[in-house]
Design brief:
It contains 17 helices and 13 strands. It is α/β, with parallel strands linked by helices. It is an enzyme of class 2 (transferase).
């Protein structure tokens, strides 16, 4: 019967997906038996399998469930490769259980078609304080990026390096990609004056700005970004990715500033937002973009009718409620506060350089010759069950030197720090 909940779901609340036991338990019980020195033959064999999976994944890292399925001997305890706020995931699960699972409404979300794109956009518009005709709902930010690149980008696109690879991988075959390489000597900061000169010289029809940038966490302050957009008003398409904007706090407080309310002022700007980063719900595939109404219409006229899942629609409905946003804001500030402490602690590790970050991850450079980034990632995973990301596949980064580490819960961050100290020893 529709809406009926099985007895096993009524007896207790389901636990969220868990990669292992708690980090606090690990600190007390596992640390004393961790081996030091070179990897054993068994550990080396596991490391080789991890490297093979990474190679098969191309310019992205294999997900934690993929690794655990294909290498079941591994015990993954902390996923510091996935970029998300774990406290917000718990908030979503609490609401999902109370409003959907316990009342027996899960079957409806799975059995019936979700609402169409425009209907979901109308729900989200209320929560964002935007007009519905300026919102495009996507099956994750990846779908939106590809839709924009294929629909609006013409002969040339300018992309900063290092960056999120789909912005240069998903362009049409007839689109030329021009790279603006950021210098590590400048901590990968974007020099706005040089950037404007590059745009004038190359004359692209599309430019991409990720703010904060992935994988280094570099940030353009709001006032400078607006001034840049004014200077580049003649560029047909400016794509601004704000997937990590909730972690980019200006000043001494924890407030963040989004460009979504500037679309009428800059009709050439399209703002992309992934929901998996700040809410930890990558599995339901939810994202949105804010752009001029004619651009939204152009995308909707070419498909994307039922491109969201029932769970994604429920999330957007939840996100639009003031009470949920208030709860989330407390989780966000809590997460940002202890993430800052985590990144500060990372800078004390020997033999590495940690780049300044305004996101929920840090780019770490190994400044030693006896270990590569891939070796460090494998050692952490095999010995400690800590999954981080080697950045050898990132254009603009020297191979073998960089890893990216995400901030997790407070206890998990302590465990990551101890694992890194041991691995770098």
């Amino acid at each position: 019967m529709i809406g009926q909940t099985p007895d096993r779901l009524k007896t207790r609340r389901p636990r969220p997906f868990d990669l292992g036991v708690s980090a606090r338990w690990l600190e007390a019980h596992v640390r004393p038996v961790i081996r030091r020195g070179p990897l054993s033959p068994r550990e080396s064999a596991l490391a080789d399998r991890i490297k093979h999976l990474k190679k098969e994944a191309g310019s992205h890292s294999p997900s934690a469930p993929t690794i655990l399925k294909l290498i079941p001997e591994l015990r993954m305890r902390v996923d510091a490769c996935f970029l998300s706020n774990p406290y917000a995931t718990e908030l979503f699960l609490d609401n999902l259980y109370r409003e959907v699972i316990r009342p027996g409404k899960l079957r409806k979300l799975l059995e019936f078609y979700p609402s169409q794109n425009r209907v979901i956009a109308d729900k989200l518009a209320n929560g964002l304080g935007l007009a519905t005709d300026r919102l495009f709902i996507g099956n994750g930010a990846i779908e939106i990026i590809q839709a924009i690149l294929h629909r609006f980008t013409g002969g040339k696109i300018l992309v900063n390096l290092p960056t999120f690879s789909p912005y240069h991988e998903f362009v049409r075959p007839d689109t030329e990609v021009v790279y603006n390489v950021l210098r590590k000597e400048d901590d990968f900061r974007l020099d706005l004056g040089e950037y404007i000169q590059t745009v004038r010289r190359e004359r692209p029809d599309t430019i991409v700005l990720i703010n904060p940038n992935n994988p280094d966490g570099g940030y353009i302050p709001y006032a400078k970004l607006v001034a840049l957009l004014e200077e580049l008003a003649d560029v047909p398409n400016i794509l601004v990715d704000e997937s990590f904007i909730h972690f980019a706090c200006e000043g001494d407080g924890f407030a963040f500033r989004s460009l979504t309310r500037e679309i009428d002022r800059f009709p050439n700007v399209m703002v992309v937002k992934s929901m998996s980063k700040d809410f930890g719900v990558a599995g339901i595939r939810a994202g949105y973009a804010v752009m001029a109404p004619d651009r939204v219409k152009a995308l909707l006229d070419n498909g994307y009718l039922w491109n969201s899942s029932g769970l994604a629609e429920y999330f957007f409905d939840l996100y639009s409620r003031p009470e949920f946003q208030a709860d989330y804001e407390r989780k966000r500030v809590h997460y940002v506060r202890h993430s800052r402490r985590f990144f500060k602690a990372l800078t004390t590790l020997p033999g590495v350089h940690v780049y300044p970050t305004h996101a929920n991850f840090a780019l770490v450079e190994l400044r030693r010759d006896d270990m590569t980034a891939e070796d460090l990632v494998c050692r952490l995973l095999v010995r400690r069950g800590i999954y981080t990301r080697a950045c050898d596949d990132k254009k603009g980064l020297e191979p073998g030197r960089f890893i990216r580490v995400a901030s997790r819960t407070r206890s998990e961050n302590r465990y990551i720090l101890r694992g890194l100290k041991e691995a770098l020893r």
